[in-house]
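cache lookup: miss for this entity combination. No prior model stored, computing from scratch. Input as submitted by user K.M.:
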Amino acid sequence: MKILKNVFELNKAIKNYKNVGFVPTMGGIHKGHESLIKISQKNNKETIVSIFVNPTQFNQKKDFRNYPRNIRKDISILKKLKINYLFLPEVNEIYKNKMKNFKLTKSDKILCAKYRKGHFEGVLNVMNRLLSIVKSKYVFMGEKDFQQYILVKRILGKKHKVKIVGCPTIRERNKIALSTRNKLLKKSSINIASKIAIKLDKLKRISKTNKSLDLSKYKDKLENKFKIKIDYLEFRDEKKMKLDNFKSKYRLFIAYHINGVRLIDNF
Ligand code: AMP
């Protein structure tokens, strides 16, 4: 596997490939990332994985510093997956040029955009830079971060003439969605996160026949029972992300804080 540290090396490595699939990550590679990689490998001659912990999408310096990193382990997993090219740039390499900043519209300021000010502006900024460097035909992103996937698809898909492919959320046996941040959880928090995931999965199923569920009641119950702080617990449709729109495909979105770690999921 070639580790490409800058744009020059990357261009040189991939100039002869027509169909390139791209899987951007922040590392701490887990089975969720692996599933995106495998989907890309199935559909493209070559797959490029990037590992870049993007400082501009963290609203707290401490969160950025504490983000789990294990590049040696990541490299060994990627080698096993037969990845030929890992793009592993430094911050200066990605941010060396001046580029357009993105602003969210009022209607976009929901869910994580409401509770993590500047987060998606940072995500769009880095994705805009990565897409203009990698110039792939396809990008594979997880539905685990559904709002991120939708925003990148809508705002950057056309601009970069790239197809953004949403891939299903991979879960542990205990129903917790795999996430690099799970490494920050204590065992007791993992048990609670599992119970919450099982409950919400059930709630989503119940919602198919009962549309008048009082989510604020469930929110209070979960907060009191598990001593967590929930930022949001909302049904929104997949296309327009409108609240309580059950007419088209919809999801149950949650973000909560447990023992100082913020987790997001959707069902
Ligand atoms: P991250 O490294 O957390 O920025 O994630 C990189 C990509 O992997 C994003 O597109 C995520 O949505 C996706 N991803 C993270 N966790 C999962 C998961 N459990 N299942 C599927 N995709 C995931």
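stored under new cache key. The chain has two domains: 2-167, 180-266.
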